[in-house]
Amino acid sequence: MAGAGSTAGAGSADRGTEGGGAGSHRDRVRGALLGGAVGDALGWPVEFLRLEAIRQRFGPAGVTGLQGDQVTDDTQMTLFTAEGLLRGGHPEALKAAYHRWLLTQRLSAPERQPDGWLLGHAFLYASRAPGTACLTGLTEHPRYEPAAEFGRPGPVNPHSKGCGTVMRSAPFGLVGLGVEDAFRQAALAAQLTHGHPTGYLAAGAFAALVERLAAGVPLPSAVAETTAQVAALPGAGETVTALERAVRVAAEGPGSAEAVERVGLGWIAEECLAIAVYCALVAGPREALLLSVNHSGDSDSTGAVCGNLVGAVHGLTALPAEWTGAVEGREVLLQVADDLVAQAGGDRAALAGRYPVWV
Known about the structure:
With 359 residues, this protein is an all-alpha fold.
């Protein structure tokens, strides 16, 4: 697929030669996770408001900064995706990780002896409008049986293509899998809760895009390569159309909320991805994050996914420090980011205490 081989090689070299400073692979991984949390927190207060209501409440520019530090299920599930990758990485390990997230939605605080380090953090036990398909997919389908081949509906919520597949999938692109495996593993894991081909293929495309960006591929090239990668698969038409629309609208002029809404509203997977791509293409980190939440759609999810992208492009050091320093769960996010980098570098010894392997 277009660009896949050369990009994977570039990513491996990048991870092997860079340190941890500004612009390094570690900085981009940290930026992807912290940026996602910031976008989530920016969008959460306005998730269910239309654009005109946002402007009435916050002024003509809409939301211009954090209204609080709280993150939602978008950041929570992203962290548990990372944990699943760090505790085995196969679909059953990821399903077990998502069931641990589900436990946080049922309890008010950690149990006395939580299963693993991540479950011990109290901020994860807040329930903030988690997605219905994520909940039903985990509670009503005890067995994992993915679609026989990409392009066919999976057995779990086969008609659902909600953005819950995309908003949790950044870690697949941050753990050194390469663009092919990042795509495949994200798409398979998305089928744990969403069976519509667009839902899981958009998740795969997002993971492959993050992989390219974290390896240092420029955003326009990474989007083009990822679009070509997903276009080669059956059932990818809606995802490809959404990505092409994002690029086309971005080329028309400066970013605006009205243009965001031409790309979509973000409730469904391909629109969530496309809005994030559009915002990242037309603006720098601060402006992109604000643009991604000031619209009439699923503001916390589009903010989270845009934050993952701009963080992977620009690194943590380029994100607004007053936001990354204040967001809920900051230290946990930084630790998980560093653990993903360690995993990508083969340093399992540093991780065993926090992530007992799930078997």
